[in-house]
Structure formats: structure tokens, C-alpha cells
Amino acid sequence: MDCVKLAGIKIDNITLQDSLQKLEEFIKSGSPHLITTPNPEIIVAAQKDRELFDIINNSDLRLPDGISMVVVSKIKRIPLKERVSGIDFLLASCKLSARKGWRIFLLGSKKEAVETAGKNLSRQFPGLKIAGIHDGYFSDNNSESIISQIRQSKADILFAGLGGGRQEKWLKKNLAELGVKAAIGVGGSFDVISGIKKRAPIWVQKLYIEWLYRLVTEPNRWKRQLALPKFLWLTLLTSPDPLPEG
């Protein structure tokens, strides 16, 4: 696959449909694959986090999860085809899983949120096989029982909503033991699917101001929103050599 580099992070230049085709290849292969969803916030964080930087660049599929990334890539004349957000990939994967008979596991968020998300997904995609559900409130150094639960569920796909950075590191560390064919970090997607949080309307997304909608509806996110100008600085106004080799 073609890829675009933004601040040293590789982004696969794919559409949502392309990503679903790759997912099917991963599941047919029978071996574990890691899918990451780099967005401006994660890209900025990775500049000072060698482990996260390497996990993203060495993952099996890197989705372009941010409209600002698409805009920047066009300005730099290395255009990404489209944004493929983690939540859009999750929903499309569930629709395909219901048709293919793939089993999914939901890990992350609060217990009420992830359980409600599972119920909503089952209603939205009749026939979807949810192999298991677990909240994200556990110690990363004491994950044996959760790993065992996921493995015994015989899930094909694991969606982990553990927050940017943590989810990628946890999945990478435990991927070989989980027994799934594809694992992906989906951030706060369960909160949106459960209805606890609202996603920006389509017209807001098309105007490229989803960041503003989030800031207005969740003002406590203002520190996280500072990642956007940092991302623009890194990608448009500088030519960084992020993180020394080694």
C-alpha cells in the first residue's frame, strides 16, 4: 500500500472500503494483526514517545483518522484519499462481521458505556456476534484474566477503547496472546456508540470544524485540542526529524 508520512509517522493512503478489504485479508490469514488510528493528537504525542512512534510505524494498517491530516496532505501535494476514523471503521467492520459471521470483542470505557455500546451495535447490525465485553478499568500490568477472557472468547476482532497511547501499547504487548486476527484501538468510540457522548453532525464534519464542536460541547478537552496547532506546526511549518534513531 502507498503511505504518506506526516511528522515521521506513516499513514496508509486508503479509503474505508480499502481498509475493510485489508481486514478481511487479516482474518483469512489466521495470524494476529495490529491496526492503529493515528490522528493529530497521537502524532504529536508520538514525537516524544519512541515506543508509541515505533508501534504506529510498524503496525499492519494505519488509518488516516483526522480530516486535518487529509487537508495537510493535500497542501503538501501528497494527498490522502479520505479520512478513515476509528469509529467509522468500527461500525463498517461490525456491519461486515454480521454478514461474514466474524466474532468481535469490545474492551474499554466504563462498564455501562461498553455494555450499552454492545447492545446498540447488536440492534444496528442484526446477526452480529459479540463474543465478549469488558470495561477498560484494569491495570496494564495485571491483564492476565482479561487476556484469557479474550482468548477463550475466540473473537476474530478486538476493538480496544483504552485511550490514545495506552491502547496501542497494550495491544502491541499482548497481541500474540489474545488469539484475535485483528486488534484496533478505537479511543472513545464506545462512549459515542452508547449515546453518552454525541458525535459532531455530518455538516460540521464536512466543514472541517469537528474540533470546534468538541471544544464547545466538551470544554474540558481544551488541553487536548492544543495538539492541532502543534500538528500543523510540525507538518506545515517545520521539517522535523522526530526522535533520534535508536
UniProtKB/TrEMBL annotation:
Keyword DNA-binding assigned: no
Pfam family, one: Glyco_tran_WecG
Keyword set, alphabetical order: Cell wall biogenesis/degradation, Glycosyltransferase, Teichoic acid biosynthesis, Transferase
UniProt GO BP: cell wall organization; teichoic acid biosynthetic process
UniProt KW GTP-binding keyword: no
One of the record's GO molecular function terms: N-acetylglucosaminyldiphosphoundecaprenol N-acetyl-beta-D-mannosaminyltransferase activity
Family matches, as InterPro entries: TagA_TarA, WecG_TagA_CpsF
Protein name: Glycosyl transferase
Naturally occurring in which organism (per UniProt): candidate division WOR-1 bacterium RIFOXYB2_FULL_37_13
